[in-house]
Amino acid sequence: MVSTVGPSRRGFLKSAASLALLALMRPRELLAGTAAAEPPFEARLVALLRRRDSAAEIGRAYLRSGDEPADASAMAAAIARDAGIEPGEAAARDPLRLRRALALRTRRDFAEGRTVRVEGWILSRTEARLYAIASLI
Amino acid sequence: LLLDARNVDRDVLDADLCIVGAGAAGIALAREFVARPVKVCLLESGGLEADDQTQFLADGDSVGLYYGPLVAARLRQFGGTTNHWGAYCRPLKPWDLEPRPGVPHSGWPIRFEDLAPHYPPALDVCGIPRNEFDVRHWRERSPYERFPLEGDLFEDTVSQVVPKKSKARFGKAYRRDLEMARNVDVLLRANLLEFEVDEYGTRVVRARVACLSGKRFAVEAQHFVLATGGIENARLLLLSRGHNPAGLGNEHDLVGRFFMEHPRFPSAIYQPSESGVPIDFYKTHEVDGAVIKAYLTLRDEVKTREELVDVQLRLVPVHDPAWTEALDSAGVRSAKRIARRLRDGRMPDDLDTHVPNVIGDLDDFWSLAKMWAENGGGPPIHHVEVLTRLEQTPNPDSRVRLGDRQDALGQPRVQVDWRLDPLDVRSARRGVELFANEVGRNGLGRVKVLLSDDDAQPLTKLRGGWHHMGTTRMSDDATTGVVDSNCRVHSLANLYVAGSSVFPTAGTGTPTLTLVALALRLAAHLKERMSW
Fold first, then answer.
1. Which terminal CB of chain B, N or C, has fewer other CB atoms within 10 Å?
2. Spatial CB neighbours of B295, under 8 Å, sequence gap ≥ 6
3. Is the pTM of this model over 0.80?
């Protein structure tokens, strides 16, 4: 049966509403954080999230499953590898292009069955890692 | 003619054809013999209207998965359960009749082509105006867009609903046909106690009948058809123990086994990525004078590849709480009441209360209009409940048997032991997992699966559809089925079964249309036999 451990259903619904965060973010919001000195790749990934708190809540639940070590750098590297991104290159510094690459990878995860189940929610492996990073940094 | 069995003044009545049960199957069958040179006796347990004493004969015990009150599972009155059915109709698909890999006991002994010619007249009997179940036809004409789930895993499937309830109630729709028929005697308040067979046990010679008033008599006929529903058909065969203590047609311990339902339960929560996602195509709505309802179903190739039973998903929107709250305000409720009264051509008598309510809650009207507009001309959806309906795996341990309690006629009541197979749970879970993947792949949102990973776990909020099927299943082999492909009980030359109890598998569509089609097919077979 559905576990009652972890975020409440209401919390998850709120979180889930942000699951389309990558697709829904507006360019202006994405560009907002890019003027300062270049943050690490993990931070750039998390900056894409519209509702970081909600994402982190899901991320914590994902990490509790034990499927992935709680290592933000390793997960960021895995995301970059799967999405075909080189963290140092220009594309990875451009939030719009980064967002597009992650959205594409996320959809491809679903198509290929690379999904995880977090408190019942079926998420792409890539987005689960992204949310887990949000809970760690 | 319509007759009250309590007034029968003979011990034995004669007929060419005796049909037991005046529900959808029995009435459809009897109508086929109106004005033919055949004397028909149609026995019905109830009267023209419901009465508690007769209805209580349907009571029994549920000893497996919870199966609601059996007393309400079937109506014992003229017209049977069509007196309150939902009137949804959908034919089986060719795939439904095929033997399928990984699905034990699947496969009908007849092909879809054998059944297909009987669907158009069955639609007519059921009151469905158009023989059209191609979803493309309805998509083109419906005012609503379909859910944009692209890909090759799911497809839309359409049911039609009888638009005029008066036609759906067989007792009302066909009473006059049978009342006026000189060759058909409908005996009301006549309960079958048992069938008696000849000394060889190969022919039914008479049906023993009792009224709750104490009256008893028999009907002798050349041919008998049992058409009392998926639970009662099995019970009455099991009660006919004169020749074989195990019951009639039960040489291989099959009568009552393979009881199937259409299990249904909430299986997922779908959170759309935007509130205006189109799902209205899946609600009951009118299109060109017909009433349709669509579902998402797994494509046949997917079910075959993954070795699953049929899975159907229904999308039910849950509106934004702000919308629901505004709709429930005193002002909006008052406005609705005023509008209803005005529509009926009357002025509300309590206007003094309602007008201040409306004025006081004007902000609610404003917020409703705003939400409607922001959502592209519809109520905002908070999330969507996904309800699954399954084709149940044929399971010999899911069964109907005689219980210990007795009814008012001194007969054992029924005991229903409804059980699911692990394949049912696996199919349900796989169905929503695939839906979740497709929703994600299409960028339509995310899905929370409510089902456990463990196939042995019970399904939460499990219900049936009051569809009783499989208990006298059809097979060409007497060791694997109770009736043959003509619905004749294997071991008896002149006893037939009509109704969904003969279904070996059931798809996910509602059974009434198919059981009526099978009854018409049986009528054609009997006409041929009786003209010998």
1. C
2. B156, B157, B158, B159, B282, B312, B313, B314, B389, B508
3. yes
